[in-house]
């Protein structure tokens, strides 16, 4: 299964919040680079962030979900 990065965070809390929102919407999200970032100062910045990834077939819909859920509600 190919995973696609749909969100990058530079702290673990933000990455886990995004993963949790995706999980609640029935996406199969995972967080990568989190443990290394927590273990080594500066690691997340050096590798381009803590990654939130989903299977390739869910990527486009998951990106739209995040975009729509970040827009202010009228």
Automatic annotation (TrEMBL):
InterPro entries: DUF2007. It comes from the Bacteria. It holds the Pfam family DUF2007. Residues 4-67 form the DUF2007 domain. This is DUF2007 domain-containing protein. It comes from Pedosphaera parvula (strain Ellin514). The lineage of its organism: Bacteria, Pseudomonadati, Verrucomicrobiota, Pedosphaerae, Pedosphaerales.
């Amino acid at each position: 299964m190919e995973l696609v990065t749909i969100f990058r965070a530079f702290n673990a809390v933000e990455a886990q919040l995004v993963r949790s929102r995706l999980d609640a919407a029935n996406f199969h999200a995972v967080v990568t680079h989190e443990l290394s970032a927590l273990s080594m100062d500066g690691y997340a910045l050096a590798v381009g962030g803590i990654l939130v990834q989903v299977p390739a077939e869910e990527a486009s819909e998951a990106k739209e979900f995040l975009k729509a859920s970040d827009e202010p509600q009228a």
